[in-house]
Predict the structure of Catalase.
Amino acid sequence: MAINENSKNKQLDEFRVKDQGEKMTTNQGLRVSEDEHSLKAGERGPTLMEDFHFREKMTHFDHERIPERIVHARGYAAHGYFEVYESMKEYTKAGFLQDPSKKTPVFVRYSTVAGSRGSGDSVRDVRGFSTKFYTEEGNYDLVGNNIPVFFIQDAIKFPDLIHAVKPEPHNEMPQAASAHDTFWDFVANNQESAHMVMWHLSDRAIPRSYRMMEGFGVHTFRFVNEQGKARFVKFHWKPVLGIKSLVWDEAQKIAGKDPDFHRRDLWEAIEMGDYPEFEFGVQMIDEEDEFKFDFDVLDPTKVWPEEEVPVKIIGKMTLNRNVDNVFAETEQVAFHPGHVVPGIDFTNDPLLQGRLFSYTDTQLIRLGGPNFHELPINRPVCPFFNNQRDGYGRQTINVGQVSYHKNSLAQNTPAPSTEEEGGYVHYQEKVEGRKVARRSDSFKDHFSQATMFWNSMTDVEKEHIIEAFSFELGKVKSKDIRQQVVNMFANVNVELAKTVAESLGVQAPTDVAESTVSKSSDALSQEKNKIKGVATRKIAVLAGEGFSGKEMEKIFKAFEKAGTRPEVVSTKQGMLKGDDGAELEVDHTFLTADSVLFDGVYAAGGLTANPKAKKQAKAFLTEAYEHFKTVGATDDGVDLIADLPADPGVVSEASPSNDYADKFLTALAEHRHWSRQV
Ligand code: HDD
């Protein structure tokens, strides 16, 4: 059957209900005559049980909540499509990776891990990056994160990891944060977490936008081609806008100013037609080369350095449609790393193996029974038939007498398919061994890649990691745990451990030898791979009455032409009048907007005459400067940034030159100006 980019949308349309303009009814379809007063025995009397409308309305309301996800509870999603650039036939028989003219619908959910459903978006955390491909051969789910490695090597430790990072059970604090005793106690006692902790304390854990972070399948999977030849494979998503992060002070403030920062960013980008795009890449290792590396390819705490195993870019995903209803789609979507298609298979990575159990199990409690695949968002767009029946909420009406296999009454249908007909046949990996509850020795090097990560960072990135350690451990009350963690990270880098020890007031580690790992990988550093660009970035344009109309028109137009999203901030809502009578609509006031919500700030004139406005605008610009952002000013706006030290990110011109906007945009394209970091 042929599937195109609209197939899922078309399928969802059968379930969409538009009730605007309609008469209200009960769930039984009976028209309702009264929805404000319950039925009573006398105007001041008790409510009567027979008021079925009241009972139905109240009962439904009482049952509206379902358990939030045990992890990744806070998330946001969008629809889109995926296209492959070239046929991957040589490597995999997966149908959606064969034909560049084909578009496969996708649904992508981004998330934080630790926080509850109502927590803030900008917290320090790993971000989930789950993609459901609705393919002709069934749903394929790539349930990944924005960090390519994981905290643990064996799924049996997952409940321990999550118990440690979630709010502490005796007082349920802190929310959506790893900066507390139990998390760091876990780290110190489970040293396999070292590599992931380095990523978690890097800028990766405070992304600027879901649209500006990488995604990784993390595990090693298998590609299998038509000839049955298999290769190990790791999956990557690379954001077309580049990888961009917030700074920590800003991230914490955003959590208060706009806890919905990332979901708003995604929603607005799609509404405005700035469709997020991610290129899809694969790293492949031939099975014969399994043991040629200085890491075990099955170990999920290891990356495959891109310099050793290049990422082949094979396709692109575009997100172009917001959901209609967050509960129905984003909340009820059920991902599972075990949802695969022919041509994609598993490996013996012990973390992956455990995940294959956990995801269906969690949906059973979360979505209330075994029929969650029938929820509109979870339905494959290809037909599906089997002998499973009944259960809570079953919607399909399976017609006929037969619900078992094998049978003769229905000519032995639904019948399994041969491999040639598209039947999924598990890769016939040869396995032998004794039953042992142990881990392979090849999984025991916990520090080499953590050191490689550290070696690969720029000085600015290293500084951010040191600050993150100092913040996180600074929130840990137990001195003993602080000390244990510092000692542990001396195995990664002694200088790092010493610097953190000093800031924490604990002993610098003494008897640890400097790591002998000198390897680095530029691909791990987001600064070294910076993509400069201004498209979709938000600029706050600060203006007041009497701004220069002529300049404003020119500069505003240039900002828009470059693809940025300028928004006007002033002292009051409504229209501002320029010196030439030009009108400008205000989007936000200093009360409703904040410097931390923008990528750059430009002060046009009109705000210096009023002392309160001047103070507010100055604070707005100064904070942007302190967060390393581009700030600029023209006309009397230059007074507002006169105290800021000059650098390439301060674009100040009292009488703006013709190319003022270009200069501002060039500075904005840098994202942040790290020369300010002391
Ligand atoms: Fe998981 C959800 C990603 C290890 C058990 N996981 C979940 C989600 C993402 C990941 C993105 C949210 C899905 C959504 O948006 O609905 N998980 C990962 C990655 C892992 C990982 C990249 C390591 C490489 N997870 C992992 C392990 C286990 C789980 C080892 C348990 C054995 N994960 C779950 C879960 C969740 C989940 C409890 C909660 C909600 C859900 O599944 O649907 O089953």
Remarks:
- The first helix runs from residue 7 to 13.
- The mean pLDDT is 97.
